[in-house]
Design brief:
One of its GO terms (cellular component) is plastid. With about 250 residues, the chain is mainly alpha-helical. Helix content is about 60%, strand content about 5%.
């Protein structure tokens, strides 16, 4: 009845190929196995893509929430793309199963034909489309709603953290200026938490190195508006233009 249509272009055959596919078959797994596959993909994407990218902006120890949210956004985006790809494949085959006529190519794109399904084939295909493909598409839609909502919620939280804690130049994360602490009595300012007093810089080479690293390559007074003004703000602006961290 379907001899005119090449075997690999028959909707029932295409459905079987989806069931046997490494990726598309995820949609037919039991609930726990399905969620496990998505979880493995999310974790792998976080470790290989989202996490390393987030690390370039956020310190995972000092800005843990921001780092996790940023990495989760990247990993969640990968999961969403995978689910969308699976959904499109099942949707395409579902449409061909439910349709009374399907397009096919005998040997190539230039000799396209349309096959009108006999009643027996149409009944079989519509049963497959109704009882197998439609429930699968419903599951994938639910997954997309869940991943989409999670992405929006994570983006909202991350934006809130960034907008409320950005520095005076609007920067946040590793690109932001380190916030110095002013010592009692106006002794000066320090950036590194490892350094307790100005005297430590004179007697401890490791403390001096830690303070230099914490300053980000800029003179320390450039990070405090009072000391910056007292020392002459024009010099700090000139230093910034040569590539120092703002």
């Amino acid at each position: 009845m379907e001899t005119a249509v090449p075997v690999d272009q028959r909707p029932a055959t295409q459905l079987k190929e989806l069931r046997d596919s490494q990726l598309y078959s995820w949609a037919t797994l039991e609930r726990d196995a399905y969620l496990k596959r998505l979880g493995v993909l999310f974790t792998s994407s976080f470790c290989l893509l989202g996490g390393p990218i987030a690390y370039q902006t956020f310190d995972p120890f000092g800005q843990t929430a921001e780092f996790l949210l940023s990495g989760a956004l990247g990993a969640g985006f990968v999961v969403s793309l995978a689910v969308i790809r699976i959904y499109l494949g099942w949707s395409y085959v579902g449409d061909r199963l439910l349709s009374a006529a399907v397009a096919y190519e005998e040997t190539g794109w230039y000799d396209g034909q349309t096959f009108v399904k006999p009643p027996e084939v149409l009944t079989r295909d519509r049963l497959l489309g109704t009882y197998e493909v439609k429930p699968t598409l419903a599951r994938l839609k639910t997954t997309l709603l869940g991943t989409g909502g999670s992405l929006l919620f994570s983006a909202f939280l991350l934006f809130g953290l960034i907008s409320t804690q950005a520095d005076a130049d609007g920067m946040y994360g590793r690109g932001a200026a380190a916030a110095p602490r002013v010592l009692a009595g106006g002794e000066g300012i320090l950036y590194s938490n490892r350094v307790k007093s100005i005297a430590d810089l004179k007697s401890d080479d490791e403390a001096a190195a830690a303070e230099q690293a914490a300053q980000g390559g800029r003179p320390g007074y450039c990070g405090d508006r009072f000391f910056r003004a007292a020392a002459g703000g024009s010099f700090c602006s000139s230093f910034d233009s040569r590539g120092g961290r703002r």
